[in-house]
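[Q] Does anyone have a clean structure-token version of this?
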Amino acid sequence: MEKSSGVSVLRYTPTSELDYGTLSCWADNLVGTQSRPCLFQLVAAGKPFPVRNCTLANQTYTSVEVKCVPGYDGGLPQKFVLEVYHGDVDFLTSSQPLYNVSNPDEPIFALAGLEASVEAGVHVAVYAVNAKGRSQPVTLSEVTYRDAEKRTGKYNFKFYEFNFYI
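[A] Here you go.
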């Protein structure tokens, strides 16, 4: 603890899980003792938890709204990312996303201009990111309807715009 010119400074470095929690401090001077302590909450920061309860709304052959509930932020500000994939859902972890978009506030996204053939469905992965890393993704399969007229055509995927709600 350092004291100089009426200012106190405590340098505190947690070294184990038990060192996190609430620190309390009280001031004392000629007028008296502070009646309520100052409280500082120390939280061990980590990667965010996955989003949950993801739902699809307003599905069409070329658009969909994806809405999820955020998980715990890991003690740090987080943003949300949606990635668009095509192909077999079992091989998405080894695939590169076709597109991605982020929302700094909440895991809600509106996708438009999507097209996929019967051979390759449209899938999305949603995850949270903070300064410590990213959560496990939540994958949603077949997020758009498949157009019956394209059953004999080759894979065709077009992207026109991403919108998200703020």
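[Q] Thanks! Anything notable?
[A] The chain has two domains: 2-42, 52-163.
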